[in-house]
Design a protein that fits this description.
By secondary structure, the chain is mostly helical. The protein has one domain. 64% of the residues lie in helices and 6% in strands. It is built from ten helices and six strands; from the N terminus they run αββααααββααββααα. Strands 1-2 form a two-stranded antiparallel sheet. The chain has a two-stranded antiparallel ribbon with strand order 3-4. It is globular, with a radius of gyration of 20 Å. The protein starts with a helix and ends in a 7-residue tail after the last helix. The relative contact order is 0.10. The mean pLDDT is 84.
């Protein structure tokens, strides 16, 4: 898919700009403002904030482009290396963007000699705003980030569904709008968690990994635009599964001791069950006659258990503030 060719143009003060890029820029600016506020409140000096933002932005863009070029299989393989630098061709990967931003947070903490976990918390709290704006931008790309055709009789909800421009009566879930709402909810949740009086540095970042990972797995399953897809596996879905696993394992390693050992073991067991179950559901979606509502309800249930257990580990009384 060529984002530049298919994108909608906006007239901004007499200048034509790409709507998708405009919304992404607004999201990046908003995330930068929030990051600045959080870092200054956390005692990080002004120059340190600029370093964090710069490295996160550079690493995010580089990893987003590299991930797309490596994983894009729409032409039967990854993009040739000579095309990597032609940004007017191909696209970008949200998974690569998030991974790059997290890498930038890690590198910047070392450069400014600040706590890695503190920077990790603040950056993770800002990322959902960028995701939300990017999801709004996706609405300006035709046939992008939408679901399979909805079954006949499924209610055409004004905000959550879109109609096929060619076929009357055919509707799709606007998964980009669902993603936008989830991203805003994630930002509010992380902000509330970050401002708790008794919290341990790094817990907000772990919560981001848990919720972003679980939500990303579900949203990638809902979309049916064949973006970065191989067989029945969506490659960005694998990244979100890694986020979920990292968040669960992080919570278990941090708090899964003594009286919490049983809960920690359950979290790991249900994490494995959730990953295996989601793979089976992905296979069943287009290869069996089982109702998609039942399959997606099962996926939500499977993903919820390790997330809830891990959040309980993070929220249990007795966790030391640090």
């Amino acid at each position: 898919m060529n984002l530049w060719k298919d994108a909608v143009l906006l007239n901004l003060f007499g200048t034509e700009v790409y709507a998708f890029g405009f919304y992404c820029a607004i999201g990046a600016l908003t995330a930068a403002v929030v990051l600045n506020v959080l870092c200054r409140e956390g005692g990080i000096r002004k120059g340190g904030v600029a370093c964090i933002f710069l490295l996160c932005a550079v690493c995010g863009l580089l990893c987003s482009r590299i991930a797309f070029c490596l994983l894009n299989r729409s032409l039967g393989g990854s993009m040739p290396f000579t095309a990597w630098f032609r940004i007017t061709e191909g696209g970008w990967s949200m998974a690569g963007l998030i991974g790059g931003i997290l890498l930038g947070a890690r590198l910047s903490a070392g450069f400014i000699k600040e706590s890695r976990l503190k920077v990790f918390d603040y950056v993770c709290c800002s990322i959902p705003l960028l995701i939300a704006a990017e999801k709004i931008g996706e609405s300006k790309l035709s046939d992008f980030d939408i679901s399979r055709p909805l079954a006949a009789g499924f209610p055409a909800l004004p905000f959550f569904t879109v109609q096929d421009p060619k076929y009357t009566g055919v509707h799709y879930l606007a998964t980009h709008r669902i993603g936008m709402i989830l991203a805003i909810g994630l930002f509010l949740t992380l902000t509330f968690f970050l401002t708790r009086p008794k919290r341990r540095t790094g817990d907000t970042g772990l919560l981001f990994l848990l919720l972003c990972g679980a939500g990303g797995i579900l949203l990638e399953s809902l979309r049916y635009d064949h973006f970065l897809e191989f067989s029945f596996v969506r490659l960005e879905q694998v990244f979100y599964a890694c986020l979920l696993a990292a968040g669960t394992i992080g919570a278990v390693c941090r708090y899964g001791k003594n009286k919490k050992r049983r809960m920690a073991r359950l979290a790991i067991v249900f994490l494995i069950a959730a990953v295996a179950g989601c793979i089976a559901i992905e296979f069943a979606l287009d290869r069996t006659g089982i109702s998609h509502l039942i399959l997606y309800a099962s996926m939500i249930l499977l993903l919820s258990v390790p997330v809830i257990l891990s959040i309980r580990l993070l929220s249990e009384k007795g966790n030391n503030n640090a």
